[in-house]
Write a structure and sequence with these properties.
The complex is a heterotrimer of chains A (160), B (96) and C (126).
Chain A lengths: L12 H23 L8 H18 L2 H7 L2 H24 L18 H33 L13
Helix pairs in contact in A: 1-2, 2-3, 2-5, 4-5
Chain B lengths: L2 H18 L18 H12 L4 H9 L1 H23 L9
Helix pairs in contact in B: 2-3, 3-4
Chain C lengths: L1 H7 L1 H18 L3 H21 L30 H31 L4 H9 L1
Classes of the chains: A mainly alpha (160), B mainly alpha (96), C mainly alpha (126).
Chain lengths: 160, 96, 126
């Protein structure tokens, strides 16, 4: 089966320059939305989608191999399951300290805080897990759909 | 499917739904059944029990944290399913 | 009659959107267009569900804390947060379903060479 997406790089300098400037700010904004989920609208899902959108913008403006070099396949396969692991691990830690499953007030044994603030920190940890998982899965689905399953590794950076 | 038959089915279903709108509560009523039983308790107790001012995040991550855990596993299994569908087809019996 | 139209007319728009998605799913021949019809159906039901939580004269469900607030929290001041929470899960499930459906469409195209429904049924009958 022929490879359909050899490095076809657009020759349009406006799109390339704008995408290059915007992508770091989009990623910073997604971390802002994640951390401020407690006192303004936001949270894990929203931040994960925004960060996945930054990678998809890079893939649309340049070629797919550029994004594959920066976000390699073994890394984003690990991130897919790391998010679910963080979430379920936080719930299982609560089981060790004789609480119910997903009862964050038992985290006072680890973190020096009152039981009310321990629930605050438990919520922050699971939102981080949700963001990692959602971001990795959306980028992974995008890669699979675009390359139709040909999972060839991108060639390394060439010196111009 | 025949276009006229589909149009007839759509208009009939739409008319039945519009007829049932009569039983709905008024728009923006604070006493409607959706806002009465457990939702005022979540709004009033979220700051003193969890310390988080955002009611949506505290309900999503703390009071209903079990739903969110299974939903994260749903999106994980969707990623795995797309990988299985599109990469595994070369080696199955459908390979050409 | 006038009171019925004025207080409940917003629900009619959601019903029109639902019926548009339903009609698209039934009538169109191309499989991709059927998928878009299913998507319209899904998102309009999510919109309808969120609209249930509105309250007259209420603000967004972020509780005001601090030194300036010295009365107890009244539930009638904030809109209902429960439909928003349930629909967050529904949105993510919708995205996952759409991703898997497009992957299935890619495999159907590789197998039959076409995405029109009647040609695929003809090929299946042989």
């Amino acid at each position: 089966m022929a490879r359909i997406l050899d490095d076809i790089i657009l020759d349009d300098i406006i799109i390339r320059t704008c995408a290059r400037i915007m992508v770091p700010f989009i990623q910073l904004y997604s971390l802002y939305v994640l951390v401020h989920g407690h006192s303004s609208p936001g949270g894990g899902f929203q931040g994960g989608c925004i960060m996945a959108a930054s990678f998809i913008l890079l893939a649309v403006a340049f070629s797919i191999n550029e994004v594959k070099r920066r976000f390699r396949e073994n890394i984003h396969l690990i991130f897919c399951s790391l998010g679910v692991f963080i979430y379920t691990g936080t719930g299982a830690i609560a089981l060790f300290f004789s609480g119910n499953f997903l009862d964050y007030s038992t985290l006072t044994h680890i973190v020096p805080a009152t039981p009310v603030m321990a629930r605050y920190y438990g919520m922050a940890l699971i939102e981080l897990g949700v963001q990692i998982s959602v971001m990795a899965v959306m980028v992974s689905i995008f890669f699979d759909l675009v390359t139709k399953g040909d999972h060839v590794e991108a060639p390394d950076w060439e010196d111009d | 499917m025949n276009k006229l038959l589909a149009l007839f089915i759509t208009i009939t279903a739409g008319a039945l739904l519009v007829y049932s709108v009569e039983e709905f509560p008024a728009w923006g009523d604070p006493q409607q059944p959706a806002s009465r039983h457990v939702s005022p308790r979540y709004i009033e107790k979220t700051v003193e029990e969890t310390g988080v001012p955002n009611a949506v995040t505290s309900v999503l991550a703390d009071y209903r944290g079990y739903d969110t855990m299974f939903e994260t596993s749903v999106i994980f299994s969707a990623g795995v399913a797309v990988m299985m569908l599109l990469r595994g087809m070369k080696y199955g019996k459908n390979s050409r | 009659m006038i009171e019925y139209i004025v207080t409940k007319h917003s629900y009619w728009f959601y019903i029109i959107l639902i019926m548009m998605g339903f009609y698209g799913m039934m009538v169109k021949n191309n499989l991709m267009k059927k998928l878009i019809g299913m998507n319209i159906f899904q998102w309009s039901i999510i919109l309808f569900y969120i609209s249930i939580g509105a309250k007259k004269g209420a603000t967004i469900p972020i509780i005001e804390t601090g030194a300036l607030v010295n009365h107890a929290v009244r539930a009638a001041d904030y809109i209902n947060p429960l439909p928003h929470v349930l629909m967050l899960t529904a949105i993510v499930v919708g995205v996952a379903t759409t991703g898997i459906a497009i992957a299935l469409l890619i495999i159907i195209y590789q197998q039959y060479g076409t995405l029109e429904e009647d040609e695929i049924i003809e090929a299946l009958r042989k």
